[in-house]
Amino acid sequence: MATYALQIAGLVLGGVGMVGTVAVTVMPQWRVSAFIGSNIVVFENLWEGLWMSCMRHANIRMQCKIYDSLLALSPDLQAARGLMCAASVLAFLAFMTAVLGMQCTRCIGDDETVKGHLLLTAGVLFIITGLVVLIPVSWVANSIIRDFYNPIVDIAQKRELGEALYIGWTTALVLMVGGMLFCCVSCCHEKSSSYRYSIPSHRTTQKSYHTTKKSPSVYSRSQYV
Length: 225
Prior knowledge:
- The chain contains 6 helices and 5 strands; from the N terminus they run αββββααβααα.
- It is of the alpha+beta class.
- It has a 5-stranded antiparallel beta sheet with strand order 4-3-2-1-5.
- The longest helix is centred in the middle third of the chain and has 37 residues, at 112-148.
């Protein structure tokens, strides 16, 4: 029962991580305009994402424009786009693998060994996905912080951390925790199966004892006669 609860918890965390990965990939709030110095324009907010940039006017109207070319992005955003797309695919594959390995799933039969291997694979994929999400989010955040404190960069070009980065860090943590839960469930499956096959039952030992105890042969009877 505890193993099944861990499976459900891991699947829920994996599903939340998968949705979060896709959301972070499409969100435009990776970089937001910084209101510092004389750059105080409270009626306009500039958002820069992986696919588009948006301008929001007075919290009412928002205009978005898709980037004309991949080369229009900075190197960190270019790498982040590729890594986040790969993370979305990995998260989907990990989630589907976890569904097939669940105890309540009957698509592949009731072989506990196969399901244990599937859960281990899903756990490893979730952990890898969390790392793949963490790398571009931290890279973009580092570049934003470096430019923010760089006196050479113009004030109008400085940006702050957007909501997508915070959601990305949370998503990476959720994915890795879900993957660890599935790895723990797989280890519990292997330990229980090895314990089950290493210790014979009482009925089996009695049966083997009776079969090994043979009746005296005809030759031994003739000796007594």
